[in-house]
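Ticket opened by: R.M.
Priority: normal
Category: complex prediction / small molecule

The reporter submitted a protein together with biotin and asked that the result be attached to this ticket for the collaborator who will pick it up next week. Submitted input follows.
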Amino acid sequence: MVAAVVARGEFEVRRFESIDSTNRYLLDEARAGAPEGVVAVADHQTAGRGRLGRVWEAPPGSALLCSVLLRPALPVERLHLAVAVVALAARDALGGRPTLKWPNDLLLGDRKLAGVLAEADLPAVVVGIGINLTWAPPGAACVGDDADREVVLDALLSSLASLYGQWPVVAERYAAECSTVGQRVRVELGDETFEGMATAVTPEGHLVVDGRTVTAGDVVHLRPA
Ligand code: BTN
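Result attached by the on-call engineer:
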């Protein structure tokens, strides 16, 4: 059950103490006709969704768990920019400290701080983000004990409002700020894995590795040999 609904600029923020998944909730709302700009925020998720069918878990109150319902005017091949705009807004909200790892992560150093998950029922796209604030799973990073969820949420939504729809700017910023560029990487596709040098992000938000454009998949940053 929604605990509170608050208007924040162009967003309508719906808060939950506990929910299965804020992404699941907004996809259902989108299918029922909810408009762009609805945001769902939860203290706790019982079935948080991660990429590639993984689960996303965090103790109650320890993370920013939020999703935003977008209806972006983007062709399918540029939909990664909907992930990019939320990742950039999160980076801005955290003072530019985290780096952006293609396709969907924010890192502190080489540890994962946050993950972004986009799920589409076109023309609606729900983009969810989980940011570890005061707790991190083993091997991951968190912002720190003094992280304030409301401050981070406000800053994220404010940056998102100013970037949203500025797709050439989003593409340029994402390409310039993506820390995967310039790294040797292992690319894990469903049926193939290969290694190479990541040299660029295209205007569609895809990664170029040894001249090959990768539109989806997982990437591991490899340390120099
Ligand atoms: C990843 O695998 O790295 C992406 C994780 C995305 C988690 C967030 S938490 C808020 C939103 N609701 C979900 O069920 N998942 C996303």
